[in-house]
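pasting for ref
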Amino acid sequence: RSMLFLVGLGLGAPDDITLKGLKAVQSSARVYLESYTAILPGHVADESSSSSSSVESVVTGSPSGLQALCDAYSIPANSIKLADREFVEQRSDEILENTEDGSDDEVNVTLLVVGDPLCATTHVDLMLRASERGTKVSVVHNASIVNAVGTCGLSVYRYGEAVSIVFFTDTWQPDSFYDKILANRQRHNSDALHTLCLLDIQVKEYDPVAMSRGEFRRNPPRFMDVHRAARQLLAVEKKRGQNAYGADTLAVGLARVGANDQAVAVGTLEEFARGSAQERAAAAARAASEEDDDL
């Protein structure tokens, strides 16, 4: 019987796939890599380009792109296709083609997901659509940031509801995360809970300004860092003023968890908001240049 496999890749590298997941990939006629809820670490985004080749490198964590994954999993070249948000959410029929029970040409299909497949609601939706078609679904779990966050030293039992923080724009600054952080921290004394804040990534996102002119142009990939997140958190606290947190609230920043170069840093929100040493140096250089221009 044919099967839709949702295979978690873990967090660090292509070889973090489980043996069960690898067997699923090797048994599948079509393999897709979901490219919008998370990426494999190891490659710095080229923000000057939004071409498909640049996006592929960013998503897979390697300049060699999808071919490196094919080689790692010992499957034929060009066997893995990128699946962006539009493809997964609006063209699921293509993913599920010939996977129904009783189909004349039954095949296995795998959707690869960085982290664990069920940490994003969009994958649950795909499971429901598969079930409606009569397609059997098998989920192959793996590590995700939800459990790997324990690497920072805080017990995973002491977390409340997780939140997502998206890039603010001049006209769109959603702050629903604030109420959830407030609820987590209002637990009495030692019962207060930590909040896992998941930071925005944007891969193959359309430029809203261009869309308003009837042009469909994608922005370059970009990824929120802890410095921008801290600035947005403090901006919302200033607006809401309910003391969910403050400039002196301790926070832990994590990057590339599971990779060989993972980073963990502790500081106040104010310290994080000031940015990295490189950012501060660049800001100082810009300010000096502007003063020279004024003179």
